[in-house]
Specification:
One of its GO terms (molecular function) is sequence-specific DNA binding. It comes from Cohnella thailandensis. About 55% of the residues lie in helices and about 10% in strands. By secondary structure, it is an alpha/beta fold. The protein has four domains: about 5-110, Rossmann fold, CATH 3.40.50; about 150-295, Alpha-Beta Plaits (2-Layer Sandwich); about 310-405; about 415-515, Arc Repressor Mutant, subunit A, CATH 1.10.10. The strands form two sheets. It has a five-stranded parallel beta sheet, with helices on both faces. A five-stranded mixed beta sheet has the order 7-8-6-9-10, with helices on both faces. Helix 2 (about 40-50) runs parallel beside helix 3 (about 65-75).
Length: about 525
């Protein structure tokens, strides 16, 4: 938990040293940031440090403690102020109460036993007040980002005493989520962002970068920084380091990856709502750039210009290839369609394109007596993680179409149990698949499954499994992106030599010969 910061002001240096030694400030939750013996310099130090607590002697030359307290308040600072007094100075204490200062300690009565409970009380009160202030600040910050108008005074509540004439950066962090490939299969859940006060406790006191405020909106965490100093390189370096710490925090808490959109330097706080909207639009397009990106967003709206994804002609061609059961043609159309999507970067167009592909795929499944792919279909295994990336969505559709076209055309006439067995094989071919496991899943005996499967398909369960694995291996070999041992593992063979033997028996060629021959 963040420690309470303290600034001591007393013209007697020995008195401040004595107070420092009376208790273990650190163990009590405090950190003494500085001790100042010249009260005229104390104001500038307070403006720089912005302490939570100031301990000030009432009687000092040049400027009294009360005068200093008035100056601090007039400067917009709101520390808790404790006045040090003596028996003869109660009139000063009464005046302090009129200023709203209710804490004063009698100097010569202070010892460890009396100071410790006073500090414990102050710590608890300051933390309670700080929690309330943080809640108000986060609420106002969230309202500002949501395009609700704030007054200048409300903005100063968010940004503090140095609110005006500063340069700001807004960082928006959001967990990478699967793209809504099917209209009814969005994840429906939001991963919690880290607790903003915990972030605030780690990101204070830097000559180049200061955390101003943070707020969680849905599953996104919005963090506002104030920049200072002249070195642009150092400021950017510090900003990226701070963002990386928060990103790591979210990833450690929730798993997965997190992408970040960072605004350009903002000189006007009223532009924050537009910067937030631009950041969200950037994060919507992470499907095209891959997960865990860090993107600096320009205010120029032309950076969001996107070509419309003209998916209609390709979908029509793909439907014809599906009716002709021509997987090579269908696969080529699918690859070209997703290359076009990558160039267009049209989020809405991609969503509609995926919906059309799913409709074609479901018609093929239903014609084979299989259930449509919808939210219920994903309940067991969850939404595919590969849907985070455009390439993953493409490969998922390629795999699904390959499975459907690899199925015998008459499979719709099979019994329900045989159709379910074939579906299990096509969905889990990369895993350890046995007749025993399939029979147990279907609730029938192994012998009964083997009998009806052979009778209706003309194949054994192992034959059907091998056929699916070899067809998938052919597809991966044609793509040419993986080594043979990697392909073997992808299609369910842990031993690449055994995979080559099975492949040769099924095709008449080794995997290398198949690649060299560029077979369809």
């Amino acid at each position: 938990m963040r420690k309470i910061t303290v600034l001591m002001v007393d013209d007697e240096i020995l008195a401040m040293e004595h107070m420092r030694r009376l208790v273990d400030w650190d163990s009590l939750g405090f950190v003494v940031k500085d001790s100042v013996s010249n009260p005229k310099k104390a104001l500038s130090v307070a403006l720089e440090l912005q302490p939570d607590l100031m301990i000030v002697d009432i009687r000092m030359p040049i400027m009294s403690g009360l005068e200093l307290a008035k100056s601090v308040m007039e400067a917009g600072l709101k520390p808790r102020i404790v006045l040090l007094t003596s028996h003869k100075e109660f009139e000063y204490a009464k005046e302090a109460m009129k200023l709203g200062i209710f804490d004063y300690w009698v100097k010569h009565e202070m010892d460890s036993d009396s100071l410790t409970p006073e500090l414990n009380r102050l710590r608890d009160e300051l933390r309670s007040a700080s929690t309330l202030q943080d809640t108000v600040r986060r609420q106002l910050f969230g309202e500002l980002l949501a395009h609700r108008r704030l007054t200048v005074e409300q903005w100063r509540t968010v940004a503090g005493t140095m609110a005006d004439g500063q340069a700001y950066r807004l960082a928006v962090l959001r967990p990478d989520k699967p793209f809504p490939v099917l209209a009814d299969t969005s994840t429906g859940t939001e991963s919690p962002a880290p607790n903003p006060p915990e972030i605030a406790g780690r990101e204070r006191d830097d000559e180049f970068l200061t955390l101003v405020c943070s707020v969680a909106i849905g599953d996104a965490l919005c963090v506002l920084y104030r920049e200072s100093g002249v070195s642009e390189g150092r400021k950017r370096e510090r900003l990226l380091a701070a963002i990386e710490r928060i990103r790591s925090d979210i990833q450690q808490r929730n798993g997965g990856t997190v992408s970040v959109a960072v605004s350009e330097k903002l000189q006007e706080w009223r532009s924050l709502p537009d910067a937030y909207a631009s950041a969200l639009r950037t994060l919507e397009r992470t499907v095209f750039d891959g997960p865990r990106i860090t993107s600096f967003v320009e205010s120029d709206s032309s950076s969001f210009d996107e070509a419309r994804l003209n998916w209609e002609p390709s979908i029509a061609e793909l439907e014809n290839a599906a009716r002709a059961r021509d997987f090579a043609a269908l696969d080529g159309i699918l690859v070209r369609l997703f290359e076009q999507a990558a160039r267009a970067r049209d989020v809405r167009g991609l969503a509609e394109c995926c919906r059309q592909l799913a409709l074609i795929l479901n018609r093929m499944r239903i014609s084979s007596g299989l259930p449509a792919i919808d939210r219920n279909w994903f309940e067991a295994g969850g939404i595919p993680d590969d849907w985070i990336r455009l390439e993953g969505i493409r490969d998922w559709f390629r795999g699904q179409f390959a499975q459907r076209l690899a199925a015998p055309e008459g499979s719709a006439n099979y019994s329900r149990k045989v159709r379910q067995a074939l579906e299990h094989i096509r969905e889990h071919y990369s895993e350890e698949v046995t007749a025993d496991a399939i029979a147990e899943k279907l609730g029938i005996s192994r012998d009964h499954l083997r009998h009806v499967f052979k009778e209706e398909t003309g194949q054994t369960v192992l034959d059907a499994l091998t056929q699916v694995r070899i067809e998938q291996a052919k597809r991966l070999l044609r793509e040419g992106r993986l080594k043979i041992y990697e392909i073997a593992e992808k299609v369910g063979y842990r031993n690449s030599q055994y995979f080559s033997q099975v492949f040769r028996k099924a095709t008449g060629r080794t995997p290398l010969e198949y690649v060299d021959g560029r077979n369809p």
